[in-house]
Amino acid sequence: MFPLLEVLKSLAQLSLAQLSLAQLFTATVIIVLSPILTDRIAAVRSILFSNYQDYFFPQLTMIIEESDGFSQNQLYAAARTYVGVLFSVSRKPRHFKCRRAIKGEKLVFDFVGEDFYQKKDIAREDSIIANFEGIKLEWKSRAKINEHNGETVSKYFELSFDKRHEKKVLEYYIPHLLARAEEIRKEERVPRLYSRGGSGLGEWLSINFEHPTTFEKLAMDPTLKRMLKDDLDRFVKRKDWYKKVGRAWKRGYLIYGPPGTGKSTLIAAMANFLKFDIYDVDISSINSDLDLRKILLSTSNGSIMVMEDIDCARLEKGGQQNKASSAKFTLSGLLNVIDGLWSNCGDERIIVFTTNHKDKLDPALFRRGRMDVHVHMSYCTIDGFKLLATNYLKIEDDHQLYRQIEVLLANVEVTPAEIAEELLNSSGSSDDVVLARLVEFFEQKLHVKAKAAELKERLKSADIDVDAEGLVKFLKQKKLENAKEKEVEQLLNSGDTDIDAEGFVKFIKQKKIEDAKAAEAK
Ligand SMILES: Nc1ncnc2c1ncn2[C@@H]1O[C@H](COP(=O)(O)OP(=O)(O)OP(=O)(O)O)[C@@H](O)[C@H]1O
Fold this sequence. Notes:
The protein contains 17 helices and 13 strands. It is an alpha/beta fold. The chain folds into five domains: 54 residues, no CATH class; 123 residues, no CATH class; 173 residues, Rossmann fold (3-Layer(aba) Sandwich); 62 residues, no CATH class; 54 residues. The strands form three sheets. The chain has a seven-stranded mixed β-sheet, covered by helices on one side. The longest helix has 30 residues. Bound molecules: adenosine-5'-triphosphate. Adenosine-5'-triphosphate binds next to helix 9 and helix 14. Pfam families: AAA (PF00004), AAA_assoc (PF14363), AAA_lid_At3g28540 (PF25568). Keywords: ATP-binding, Hydrolase, Magnesium, Nucleotide-binding. Its cofactor is Mg(2+). InterPro entries: AAA+_ATPase (IPR003593), AAA_N_dom (IPR025753), At3g28540-like_C (IPR058017), ATPase_AAA_core (IPR003959), ATPase_AAA_CS (IPR003960), Mitochondrial_chaperone_BCS1 (IPR050747), P-loop_NTPase (IPR027417).
């Protein structure tokens, strides 16, 4: 160890009162005359300075925890955004994390928290200084570590500043931080897509949500699209209005329509439009009302909580009357999150439900004020088709086949997903060829539709030319097969079966061959 450094360190540990003039003089001379030691001397100077500071101006330290064990601390989330940006604009501290997203161009700088040092076994020492109207504020990222397994228990920030500035920090700096973090989120940030992972219910894994879909690229009824954009725009601008009328600042959307009509694509467009994070909630993994509340509380403001295929939720009976309902996942628990007491937690929240079968949903979900906006994603119309043709083929003007396509689309049900798939597979061909192929595709669909309608009509009419006996036989056979399958399943589940494993494997093999043959025959 360098002896000069030792001298300086011991000097630094003395309080000012204990330092004689001679000692101070010696220290000053060493500092001035030792340019090679600049870095180390700077460290010692800062220790001396902080001792002096503490003596005359005691510091206050504010703890900002990530969570209170129940819900996410919005101030922590804002601080993380804010401090991250401090790095990109200030001189970097000695340790910081630097990364680049898979598709991102910008470098991202992250504060190195104590848990990082703990895990890597490096000495902890980093912090960053912010300046606010002449006030020096020191940010430190910390973590509580489990002594036994070295895992991070929780994270928090320490914000230290001169006690004299307490009022100003609380009244001006903290609101400034919140507003700044909000600005950063809206202007610069790429939305993130969260999905539940990890051990706890509230634990989310996330990635940058770099989905290319915007409203401009979305094939849907133009009037509905405009209405939706205006609605979202109004929603984010009406913070004061919601407060004034005493309503929670949230909005619910029910998006319904057949598979492939763009329900998920619309959600992506909404997130990109608002620059909101998406929390993708797998409805089948929710087992109780309590689960749902925990999930809700672990999401942040300015986000979209998505529950796809809401008709598949395994909602149990038991509503307001049942006091123990929080142990089950019930309709009333779901409604409570949409417009009950629990819907009031957080601000600027959007909840989206999607379904392919609106008719299967409980009417209670539609009661006025519950799902504010119902969006029907329909089969492709000519407007949607033209937009897809512009997206994929860059056709901007009218095309001679559009009139024919319009008539066809009015008579067949084709999803935008099907058209997108066809367009994707036709890359490299001329526009005329691609559109002609699509006309063929629609005509084929029209033909199948006409055949099915004809068959239905003939079945209804008296003069059916159907081998009724054969049909009955076929149906009986099918019924028998289904019943047998069920029986086998029951037997296998019951546990008291004496399974002949070899025979079973033979049976499955045989079944596989039969299925393959049947598929081939088709
Ligand atoms: N309205 C649309 N506009 C543009 N592209 C679309 C649209 N609908 C579907 N697509 C294309 O089809 C793909 C599948 O669509 P998407 O997953 O959004 O449909 P969905 O209605 O959510 O289907 P599902 O009910 O099966 O989840 C998208 O990735 C997109 O490329």
